[in-house]
Design a protein that fits this description.
Helices cover 35% and strands 16% of the residues. It is built from eight helices and ten strands. The strands form three sheets. It has a five-stranded parallel β-sheet. It has a three-stranded parallel β-sheet with strand order 6-7-8, with helices on one face. This is Thiazole synthase. It catalyses: [ThiS sulfur-carrier protein]-C-terminal-Gly-aminoethanethioate + 2-iminoacetate + 1-deoxy-D-xylulose 5-phosphate = [ThiS sulfur-carrier protein]-C-terminal Gly-Gly + 2-[(2R,5Z)-2-carboxy-4-methylthiazol-5(2H)-ylidene]ethyl phosphate + 2 H2O + H(+).
Length: 262
C-alpha cells in the first residue's frame, strides 16, 4: 500500500526533520551540540528540572550550544509525578523562555518503571490546554487514552515504545498501529528506542516521528549514533510511503519462469 506524503506539522509549524532528540546524559555540552547537529533534529527536548536554560546564571546554559534561534526548544516535565508539579514546571519554563507555548508533558507513575500516570497526565493536559499551552504528551500505548488526549486539545501524542531508557525497542506494534489509525494529531514514539532499526520500525508503522535521548547519548559513539538515527528515521519514512510488498506463504522467484528461453 502506498501512502500520501504529508509534512510534519506541530502546533501550526512545519518541520523537515522527524527525529526529535533530548539534551541530557551527554558527556558535556559540546558533545550535546555535536550529536544534535549530527541528528539533524529541529526540536530539542529539555528537562527543566535537570538542565540549566537560564535558571542559574552562574552555570553554563544549554541554550549556548542549542540556541532557540536555530532550534525549537521543547521544555518537558521529566521527574514530575503529579499534575500540579507538571503544570508548575511548564509555567516556569514559559517564563524562562519568554512566553514559549510548545511543551512536552509527562507525568510519571513511579520511579522504577517511569511509566506514565495517565489520570494525572490527563488532568495536567486539561489544565495546560486551557492555559494556552501547545501540549505534546507522553502517554501509554493505549488507543483510548491517546484519543482522549487528542480530544482535550493536545497537539501531538507520544506513546512509549517500551520503558524510558530501556532500549528494548517497540514491544507492542499492534497498539501503536491502532493509535496511528485513529490519529487526528501527529503520533511520535517516545521512549524505549535502542538502536537505528527500532527507529526505522516506528516510522515504517506510520509514526510521524520519533523522540529519543538515551539511545544516542549512551551509545559508545553518540555522534555517530545520532547520524545513524537520522538515516533510520528517513529510511523508515520512505519505506512507509513506498508501501511494503505483501507477505506471502510461498516463494516468488525474482526471475519469472514464464517466457524464459529454453
Amino acid at each position: 500500500m502506498k501512502h500520501e506524503d504529508k509534512p510534519l506539522i506541530i502546533a501550526g509549524k512545519q518541520y523537515a526533520s522527524r527525529l526529535l532528540v533530548g539534551s541530557g546524559k551527554y558527556r558535556d555540552l559540546e558533545q550535546t551540540r555535536e550529536a544534535t547537529e549530527a541528528a539533524g533534529a529541529e526540536i530539542i527536548t529539555v528537562a527543566i528540572r535537570r538542565v540549566n536554560i537560564g535558571q542559574d546564571p552562574n552555570e553554563p546554559s544549554l541554550l549556548d550550544v542549542v540556541p532557540p534561534s536555530r532550534y525549537t526548544i521543547l521544555p518537558n516535565t521529566a521527574g514530575c509525578y503529579t499534575a500540579k508539579d507538571a503544570v508548575y514546571t511548564l509555567q516556569l519554563a514559559r517564563e524562562l523562555l519568554g512566553g514559549h507555548k510548545l511543551v512536552k508533558l509527562e507525568v510519571l507513575g513511579d520511579e522504577k518503571t517511569l511509566f506514565p500516570n495517565m489520570p494525572e497526565t490527563i488532568a495536567a493536559a486539561e489544565t495546560l490546554v486551557r492555559d494556552g499551552f501547545d501540549v505534546m504528551v507522553y502517554c501509554s500505548d493505549d488507543p483510548i487514552q491517546a484519543r482522549i488526549l487528542a480530544q482535550i486539545g493536545c497537539v501531538a501524542v507520544m506513546p512509549l515504545a517500551s520503558l524510558i531508557g530501556s532500549g528494548m525497542g517497540i514491544l507492542n506494534p499492534w497498539n501503536l498501529s491502532l493509535i496511528i489509525e485513529q490519529a487526528t494529531v501527529p503520533v511520535l514514539v517516545d521512549a524505549g528506542v535502542g538502536t537505528a532499526s527500532d527507529a526505522a520500525i516506528a516510522m515504517e508503522l506510520g509514526c510521524d516521528g520519533v523522540l529519543m535521548n538515551s539511545a544516542i547519548a549512551l551509545a559508545r559513539d553518540p555522534v555517530r549514533m545520532a547520524r545513524a538515527m537520522r538515516l533510520a528515521v528517513e529510511a523508515g519514512r520512505e519505506a512507509f510511503l513506498a508501501g511494503r510488498m505483501a507477505r506471502r506463504f510461498a516463494a516468488s522467484p525474482s526471475s519469472p519462469m514464464a517466457g524464459r528461453v529454453a
